[in-house]
Design a protein that fits this description.
With about 110 residues, this protein is mainly β. The protein has no helices and 11 strands. It has one domain (about 5-100): Rieske Iron-sulfur Protein.
C-alpha cells in the first residue's frame, strides 16, 4: 500500500465532503462521526464532482441528480446511478488523513 497525505482531519467538514487530489486522482473525503472515507470524486452517473454534494448517514449524494453512494462500499444507494464508485483505504496519522489511491477496496477502477 502506498498512502499519501490528503488533508488534515479538521479540514473535513461534517455533512459535506472535501475534494482533494491524491496521486493525480480526484478524491472525495467524507466523514461519518469519527470515521473518514475516501471515494473517487466522480459520480458514476453524471460524471460530476461528488465532493460538491452532502454527506449523511455514511452516504454521499451527488449534487446534480441526487444519486447516493455508500461511503464504505461505493455502491449506489439511490438512483439514477446504478454503477459503484471506487473506494480507497484511509489511514489517520497525527491528525492527518492519508489515502492509498493505488488500492481500491471494492475493485472498481476509477475512470
Amino acid at each position: 500500500m502506498s498512502f499519501e497525505r490528503a488533508c488534515a482531519v479538521d479540514e473535513v467538514p461534517a455533512g459535506e465532503a472535501l475534494g482533494v487530489s491524491v496521486g493525480g486522482l480526484d478524491v472525495a473525503i467524507g466523514r461519518d462521526g469519527d470515521e473518514l472515507f475516501a471515494v473517487h470524486d466522480l459520480c458514476s452517473h453524471a460524471h460530476v464532482a461528488l465532493s460538491e454534494g452532502e454527506v449523511e448517514n455514511c452516504t454521499i449524494e451527488c449534487w446534480l441528480h441526487g444519486s447516493k453512494f455508500d461511503l464504505r462500499t461505493g455502491k449506489p444507494t439511490g438512483l439514477p446511478a446504478t454503477e459503484p464508485v471506487a473506494t480507497f483505504p484511509v489511514d489517520v496519522r497525527d491528525g492527518d488523513v492519508y489515502v492509498d489511491v493505488q488500492t481500491t477496496l471494492n475493485g472498481v477502477t476509477p475512470a
